[in-house]
Amino acid sequence: MVLAQLGGSISKALQRMSNATIIDEKVLNECLNEITRALLQADVQFRMVADMQKNIKKVVNLDDLAAGHNKRRIIQQAVFNELCKMLDPGKPSFTPKKGKPSVIMFVGLQGSGKTTTCTKYAYYHQKKGWKPALVCADTFRAGAFDQLKQNATKAKIPFYGSYTESDPVKIAEEGVERFKKENCDLIIVDTSGRHKQEVALFEEMRQVSEATKPDLIIFVMDSSIGQAAFDQAQAFKQSVSVGAVIVTKMDGHAKGGGALSCCCYKKSCYIHWNWEHMDEFEVFDVKPFVSRLLG
Ligand code: GDP
């Protein structure tokens, strides 16, 4: 189930509830069960969905609502509030400041969209007057440096990397040092990925992080991986201190729910939605997102 379908299913459930002549426990339960089914089909974590249902039932106590109360509106508002609460990633653990050098390290599995996202992140800030720079510390994937170089050149962003050096820690350190000297205020370090979570990858992330002392570590996640997103985010979080999440490939036929689960795995996270084009990079804002989701 893609996100648009998820929103459609929740809206339909609310509409059906709204059309009922009398709003009683049975109608409310049917509505909540329908919403629960839609969220589970979209791959949102079971625990989160169960909590949401419990919270709505706590807020909407039909027995206590005096006659004259607009039960339909109260239920709709409770669903909206709970969806917002569930998806609210909270405040970012660190917000870079223009003119003050910040190191941002990107981590994630191979193919998640790290390299693409690094350039988008740099370009997004460059357009707002920042002085970003890109460091390619991915020595694992052949062609990673070329890809970053190509992206960086196209966007006119300075970059650093090596065809010969095989130590990612050394490259990351050198790159960060160089761009600090050049007064860049957003030094972005792209790191290696693997196809699956491997001990070696996590150890490498730990070492790069130790050497570059990033102000913020952003976990890049492919939205199409569904519920596995939650476990993956947790695994990365155990090795390095992830402070934000960027969800990629929301333009595809991804279920999206996994991504939704991921954005609340820790409250101190924020999220970007990005698409294939450089200038369609958007900061996640929970209320407009839920409003849009429900149509
Ligand atoms: P990395 O291995 O994590 O660095 O991943 P890449 O940045 O090389 O991306 C892997 C593939 O996914 C490339 O073909 C990208 O063009 C593609 N890609 C990255 N982000 C997006 C996105 O938001 N939407 C779509 N459709 N494709 C993406």
Automatic annotation (TrEMBL):
Residues included from the entire protein: 1 to 295 of 493
Residues covered by the AAA+ ATPase domain: 100-240
Protein name: Signal recognition particle 54 kDa protein
Notes concerning its domains: The NG domain, also named G domain, is a special guanosine triphosphatase (GTPase) domain, which binds GTP and forms a guanosine 5'-triphosphate (GTP)-dependent complex with a homologous NG domain in the SRP receptor subunit SRPRA. The two NG domains undergo cooperative rearrangements upon their assembly, which culminate in the reciprocal activation of the GTPase activity of one another. SRP receptor compaction upon binding with cargo-loaded SRP and GTPase rearrangement drive SRP-mediated cotranslational protein translocation into the ER. The M domain binds the 7SL RNA in presence of SRP19 and binds the signal sequence of presecretory proteins.
Entry GO terms, CC: cytosol; endoplasmic reticulum; signal recognition particle, endoplasmic reticulum targeting
An annotated Gene Ontology molecular function: GTPase activity
UniProt key word Heme: no
Species whose genome carries this gene: Spirodela intermedia
Role of this protein: Component of the signal recognition particle (SRP) complex, a ribonucleoprotein complex that mediates the cotranslational targeting of secretory and membrane proteins to the endoplasmic reticulum (ER). As part of the SRP complex, associates with the SRP receptor (SR) component SRPRA to target secretory proteins to the endoplasmic reticulum membrane. Binds to the signal sequence of presecretory proteins when they emerge from the ribosomes. Displays basal GTPase activity, and stimulates reciprocal GTPase activation of the SR subunit SRPRA.
Places the protein is found: Cytoplasm; Endoplasmic reticulum
